[in-house]
Fold each of these.
Amino acid sequence: MLVTSEQMLKKAREENFAIPAPNFFDLDSARTYIAVAEKLQKPVILSFAQTHADILPLKEAALIGKFLAQNTNVAVDLHLDHGQTEDFIKEGIDLGFTSIMIDASYDPFEKNIERSKNMANYAHEHGVFVEAEIGHVASGERVDFIEESEQKYTTVEEAIKFAEATKVDSLAVSIGTTHGEYKGNPEINFELLSKIHQAVNLPLVLHGGSSSGDKNLKKCAMGGINKINIFTDFCLAGMSAISKKKPETYFDLKKATNESMAELLEHYYQVFETR
Ligand SMILES: [Zn+2]
């Protein structure tokens, strides 16, 4: 069933666990994620990033997401990830996305507040759940982004001010992860996470979950992070399945990559202790 992430994230916050938010970019990936959620009977935040609109147009993403969500018995939030422009996000809302992220984290703090607040007003009028980001989760080995960008950690003071001023429903925080693949293990600032968790009464979101290490991710899920975005790891799992299994036909290749992505998502459900 198609829902907003409000109830699932509320429960996740109350019970200290996280919900996976895997990025889909075609029918296969979306179908794979939903099949895993259905098999485990757990909620999923099915995410589509604006940067992938050149691979899969927004309208098709909305059709795929809504169709799959409406034809399963588990709760599916159809999420517009990293919305960078207001027009694109509004189009997503019109097309039936049930939650959106406005990513104005590239902007100066006051501008980020203004844009996130305006978008939250618009989205709330349409019954849509809103995530915004403060601080900035950088992108290293760019897979889902075009440019390199600099890391900016979230501060507790900013988090409090931002939450109050914008009235967004969830907060993406920058605590040490980066987008894409790591060259080493990330240094996650758990103390900072704990302080933000205590100071702000909102579900927190971790971007750049890929390759962060299971131990780190579990600790985040137990410590205030309620949604974890995963993208790059699915691409890596697919490529690794291809090189290991050496499929001889295109259909064997599709089967191998789909299966590897399903296994990975199932694994992350366990790591995040999703209920
Ligand atoms: Zn992200």
Note: The first helix runs from residue 6 to 15.
Amino acid sequence: MPRAVIFDIDGTLYDYSAAHAHAFRAVTDYAAKALGLTAERFETLHDWADERLRAHTGGHCAAIHDRLIRYQLMLERLGLSIAHAPKMERLYWSTLIGHMAPNPGLHEAFDWIKARGLGLGIGTNMTANWQFAKLERLGVLGQVDFMVTSEEAGTEKPDQRLFQLCAEKAGCAPEECVFVGDSLRGDALGAQAAGMRGIWLHDGTTEDAPGIARIDALSRLPETLSKEC
Ligand SMILES: [Mg+2]
């Protein structure tokens, strides 16, 4: 049995793709009405802004997820007022958070971990403010003992620094930590390289991942932690 279980957030605790689709559509609709952009033009500009932001920042920090800066870059390029940017950002996140639903088994898994006195942590690539809001929305923030965002770590998973900070905050050796996430490379293999046990929440893929435990739902986590860790 591990001493701490650490979770990714997006795609792991809730269905990011579904919530993002609603949020992206809301901002696309805003851009059509307020900026006169077609959906295709908005998406092309969004991709361009994403590339520019990665180029400006170096691509390995939490700022690459910052939608406010992406919208700002798009508006600057169009020669339009950047006053739209915070409105678009608030619209995106309020829509996404409004459509978030916990993945099946989330509450049971968290309750199981807490009932056994194990540490419960978060290790996530993103800025802290919205990750706190997501955990609040999911109703689990009060159960989380510690969190490491890539904003705090100054680097993104699978960089080892983020996993090392998780182990430091857990107060145990990396070997005593389990890391659960939906990204094979970013979560499970990154954690494994840092000395942790990686558990991959996969979507039915048959991709080979030696040494990585797999679960197809969070409801399987207690059984996996009992048997395999
Ligand atoms: Mg994820």
Note: Residues 8, 10-12, 181-183 surround magnesium ion (CB under 6 Å).
Amino acid sequence: MIHLERDKKAAFVSIGVTAFLAIIKYFFGILSGSIALTADAIHSLTDVISSVGVLIGLKISSRKPTKAFPYGFYKAENIVSLFLALAIFYAGYEIILTSVEKFGTVVLTNLPFAIAAALTSLVFTVLLSRYKLKVGRELNSPSLIADGKHTQADTYASAAVLLGLLGYYFGFSSLDAIAGIFVSVFVFRAGYEILKDAIKVLLDASIGYESLNRIREVASGTYGVRKIRSLKARSSGKFMFIELEIETNLKDLERAHQLSDRIEEQIKSEIKNVDRVLVHMEPEEKEYIRYAIPCTENKGLSSKVSGHFGAAEYFCLFDLRTADNELTDMRFIKNPYLALERRKGLKAAELLVTNKIDKLITKESIAQKSAFYVLEDAYVEFEETDADAIEEIVEELKA
Ligand SMILES: [Zn+2]
């Protein structure tokens, strides 16, 4: 709550101060006949308009989606910006035209007032940029920091205006027109920034690399997500639409549904202004299936299958390649919990889960034992066998 208020307050302070500067610069610009001061007034006005535009855009874009506009009105803001940018370019063009026309013929009056106005503008612009950068960094708001940097660069325009007027005072009469042309660069820059952002959003450009990485991190950290196949995100106005394609080993629809809800929640809690997250799920593509069988000895394929689970001497783990059912890996793990009095089954189950087994084959049923729940939680499947040796089971599985 406090967060939002400080954000808004900074925006209003910025608009207020910049509007005030635009007015005094325009007034004294006209009064003195200074092209540069008038040009900088127009520049400040474009800055005010773009800030107000953002606020109005937020209002329009917060309108609820309708049947005819199911994706909302977010882009209304960007369409407004497009027209705004064109108007600003025109203003820049006018400033250059005037500067060139009056080059060398400028006659300034009321010079002390004009100089005072330019100095006021310089001082306030410096203070305003510092304020916005400070609040922006404290709130970790990229848009406010970007805005602060814009204002920081604007101090060069204000300084140029002041230099032009002082130059005129010391006899360099064309400096004011030169400063006017210099200021027009800032007007064009403001227009370009607005135009670029608007076009990017209108053409569904991807969001920044950093945000994409953050989303990837949050999604892959969610339990049940095995792999992220693709991630796309675009902005619409101030909001983000995210499309995720993931691989999961969940087979139950109910659980898969919960997983997609959880991913969406996580992303929305970590990243601001996310409108929706679309999660497309695919079954995990496995290169092999890993089996585990409790056994009494470590003699390769001829090892005998144990009648117990927790009390088995060894666990035989092997991989069958899904493409052709070939045995690709086999190893034996000595049961380290054999000597425990209690909970050896549970411990053994945890050991097998950390070894990422997919299927457990046993002689005795472990259903309803604590080991069962550990394995079930990790989506391990179960099978019972009456085979005596590992070899028989492998042959059966291959066939
Ligand atoms: Zn500016």
Note: Residues 145 and 162 are 26 Å apart (CA to CA).
Amino acid sequence: MKKISVLGSTGSVGRSTLSLAGLNPDRFRIVGLAARRNAARLLEQAQKYSPLAVALHDREQAAWLRQQLPGTPVLEGQEGVSRLAAEVEAEIVVAAITGAAGLIPTLAAIQAGRDVALANKETLVMAGELMMREVRDAKVRLLPVDSEHSAIHQCLNGERQAQVKRILLTASGGPFFGKSLRELSEVTVQEALNHPTWKMGPKITVDSATLMNKGLEVIEAHHLFGLQPGQVEIVIHPQSMVHSMVEFVDGAIMAQLGITDMRLPVGYALSYPDRCNLPVPSLDLFAMRPLEFHPPDPVKFPCLRLAEAALQQGRTTPAALNAANEVAVGLFLEGRIPFPDIPAVIEGVLDRHRPRDPESLEVVLEVDRRSRLEAHDLAVTRM
Ligand SMILES: NC(=O)c1ccc[n+]([C@@H]2O[C@H](COP(=O)([O-])OP(=O)(O)OC[C@H]3O[C@@H](n4cnc5c(N)ncnc54)[C@H](OP(=O)(O)O)[C@@H]3O)[C@@H](O)[C@H]2O)c1
């Protein structure tokens, strides 16, 4: 029985994880659950899965939850979420908090010697060198949950890293694939949230619409698989059936295909190197529409170019990119800036950024804080 803590249990990946655990009760036991403020959903989850402890970032909601859950420790605040990640006896921690808020709890889990199933790509973007160093020092496993990185992980199984020529990272293209620049200037929040193939939380859904999600994933792949920036190529594949591919030095390409259900990559990360039973429908090859593959358009989707440039520049530039993106996406979701201002704000922050060596958590957090302020200032001047 594998003991699992889920950080971000009330979100989209968190709920997929709990559904997977519910389908495999003889295999997985949920021991810790953490969220930001959705106390009602966390209560339901705690009643169903009986964890050893739960945590809420929001202290008022934590106080309410404590009254509802006598007998279960309810930790609170950021330190409570980190303590849950570190102290509750899990064999693996699912890192499914959105954005930079996930960095400190995820590092806490790693430093406590726990394997991590990583959905939260933003943490690797902002502090990739630091996190990979902690993973090596603590001798733990960092297993990808992102469906593309899970696909790459599966294609690389049993292969030699030195024989990888390149990674073909697939992207659905999001809801705005094929739109003109003029059409893109007028898209609404509702349209951006209407992803054609995946049901996900709002931040990653907007990232998919700008293609920043793919840019973040290129940086994530660089850290997870030790790839050089030029070794990752993005391929727009609107059907989202090929989850990614690996090309080897002899020209052979391995691909991983499957339905769009996050329980598959979560299950692989939690069971690795095994696989777990999942009663999901098989991919119906005969009903498949023709599979299409297109190059991305960096003029219409400048976030891709910005992320690739940030990776090339390295040091703290990816942390600045991530912070600026989180602020710009938040303002877009609030209806305060139009869609094309997302890359404009990020580019403005990157133009001002003076890269430093990301040698410590303090440096990364300072860059994150400063870049957020600059992104706000830049956005306000455009409003
Ligand atoms: N959704 C997908 O299919 C998918 C696929 C691949 C990768 N990812 C990545 O997985 C991560 C989660 O995505 P999602 O779509 O599941 O997001 P989501 O639905 O918005 O859920 C986010 C979760 O994080 C919690 N949270 C936010 N801030 C927190 C904090 N400071 N402390 C503790 N918990 C906090 C939220 O709690 P509340 O509910 O209380 O706010 C919620 O449980 C992202 O990094 C995303 O890029 C997602």
Note: The mean pLDDT is 97.
